[in-house]
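> call design_seq(struct)
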């Protein structure tokens, strides 16, 4: 890093989960089992959709993409968290921290769009069944996935642009087992209150927008089923 980032911390210390050695081993076994279940479950869905011709429909296409994203989200933070449980010094480089943050928010953005696409798919199938095949054609399904990745990248980069030039010249301890924007902003050698608000508003607007659209779609579905 050059210019304003000459004072940028080269690494962060993740305080993470602490406790006795027995507690750490127990947590490692629990989280490893959960992570293995997430990976095997989602990969099973992904491969079934790919290789079973009976599942080549819009709903399962979107479900397979959602499973792929779930694998990515889990793999972004959980493996390092598991290995850090057995380490005395839990350290992550600045580049690694930023990469982790970006992947979390990119995949989070994609997942939100896919959830809305799946809700729209069910709405179309239940409320307008005669037009379903025309509306949910392969081109539309691919467009949903591409839109999700575009929105996810924009969502992450809009936050990334705010913190990449922040000066980090003070404490470098992150009170968590992974990196995220609010925790990193608090370590900057500047007043980050406004920046924290912008970041929170960005995520909040996207999350609440997704939530209300999902609720609205299911209200329409319930009304259609009731009628």
């Amino acid at each position: 890093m050059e210019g304003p980032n000459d004072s940028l911390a080269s690494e962060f210390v993740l305080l993470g989960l602490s406790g006795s050695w027995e507690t750490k081993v127990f947590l490692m076994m629990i989280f490893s089992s959960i992570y293995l279940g997430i990976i095997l479950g989602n990969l099973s869905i992904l491969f079934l959709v790919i290789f079973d011709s009976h599942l080549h429909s819009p709903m399962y296409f979107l479900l397979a993409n959602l499973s792929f994203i779930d694998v990515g989200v889990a793999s972004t933070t959980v493996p390092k968290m598991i290995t850090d449980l057995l380490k005395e010094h839990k350290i992550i480089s600045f580049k690694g921290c930023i990469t982790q943050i970006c992947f979390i928010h990119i995949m989070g953005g994609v997942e939100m769009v896919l959830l809305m696409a799946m809700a729209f798919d069910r709405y179309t199938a239940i409320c307008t069944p005669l037009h379903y095949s025309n509306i949910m054609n392969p081109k539309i399904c691919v467009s949903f996935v591409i839109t999700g990745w575009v929105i996810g990248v924009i969502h992450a980069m809009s936050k990334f642009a705010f913190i990449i030039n922040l000066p980090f010249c003070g404490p470098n301890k992150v009170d968590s087992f992974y990196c995220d924007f609010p925790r990193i902003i608090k370590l900057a050698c500047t007043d980050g209150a406004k920046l924290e608000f912008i970041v929170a508003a960005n995520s909040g607007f996207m999350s609440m927008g997704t939530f209300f659209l999902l609720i609205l779609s299911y209200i329409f579905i319930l009304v259609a089923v009731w009628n």
